[in-house]
Structures are given as structure tokens and as C-alpha cells.
Specification:
The structure is a single chain. The protein is an alpha+beta fold and about 150 residues long. Helix content is about 15%, strand content about 40%. The protein has a single domain, classed as Immunoglobulin-like. The protein is globular. Bound molecules: copper (II) ion. Copper (II) ion (CU) binds next to loops.
């Protein structure tokens, strides 16, 4: 019978495995999950997107409801520090809630290096860093979007 095949133990095992892996956090989020620092620890992590590779070096945090800060480095595919071809505007955004975070202070230290301060994760949930060509903080999909913390 067809209905019995559906409940074959192997099928169920594969189904459960695919559900659990599809819901898994990215590796960098899983590193320290369970702690109250966004699961990211104090270590560096890297994300490559939109032809750039970004590294985060946390100076403080990331911590829930405590001011955090980090150094963001921006590299090209060759690993060289590079500037954007626009003046970047940085802001936090909660994709599940559809609202931005409090204003950040972003300082360009040198080519490809930014210090981002006044990082406040004031709500539980997913937080993304958006890098925008404009001052608009509506979470536009044309921004460079980097998931940075989950509380
Ligand atoms: Cu929120």
C-alpha cells in the first residue's frame, strides 16, 4: 500500500534529517549558541556577498541590550582591503519584524576598514547589518545584507 511506504522508517528518518538541517543556523551562528552574546562569541567571522568578503571583529559584544561595537573589514576576491564605489550608510535591521535598529556610528578608519559603534540589539530575534547607498533604512533588498546576530 502506498500509504505504508510513506511511513517507512527510512523515509521518516530522512524527513526528520532534512527538517533539522534546513532549520540549522549558519556555522558562525552555531559556534556559541546558547550564550547571551548572539551566538557569535568574540571571534571573527566572515561572510562573502555582492563580490565582497566581510570580516567582523567584535570589540565589545555582541550582547543583548548592551552597547556593542566591531571592526568591519571589506575585501575583494583577491583578499585586498577595498572601498565601496559609493559612500556606505550602515544600519541595523530586524528582518522578521520589519524595522531598523537605533542609529549606528560608522567611522572609516582606512581603506576597507570601518569601526561600527553604538550597536544596540534591543530586541530578541534576528539582526542584520545593512550597507546602503542611501540614507534609507527600510530594509531594501538592494542593500548589502549581512546577518550578524540572533538573540
Ligand atoms: Cu524587532
Amino acid at each position: 500500500m502506498t500509504c505504508l511506504k510513506v511511513f517507512h522508517p527510512l523515509f521518516v528518518a530522512i524527513l526528520l534529517l532534512s527538517i533539522s538541517t534546513s532549520c540549522a543556523d549558519p556555522t558562525y551562528l552555531a559556534a556559541n549558541s546558547g550564550s547571551d552574546n548572539g551566538g557569535l562569541g568574540n571571534s571573527t567571522f566572515d561572510i562573502c556577498k555582492n563580490d565582497f568578503c566581510f570580516s567582523f571583529d567584535w570589540l565589545a559584544g555582541p550582547e543583548y541590550r548592551k552597547e556593542s561595537s566591531f571592526i568591519l573589514s571589506v575585501r575583494n576576491a583577491d583578499g585586498d582591503l577595498v572601498d565601496f564605489n559609493f559612500t556606505p550608510h550602515f544600519y541595523l535591521y530586524m528582518p522578521d519584524h520589519g524595522h531598523p535598529g537605533d542609529p549606528l556610528t560608522a567611522t572609516r578608519l582606512e581603506k576597507g576598514l570601518y569601526k561600527i559603534e553604538k550597536v544596540m540589539f534591543f530586541m530578541k530575534g534576528q539582526w542584520d547589518l545593512h550597507i546602503s547607498e542611501t540614507q534609507d533604512e527600510s530594509g531594501s533588498s538592494s542593500d548589502i545584507i549581512l546577518p550578524i546576530a540572533h538573540f
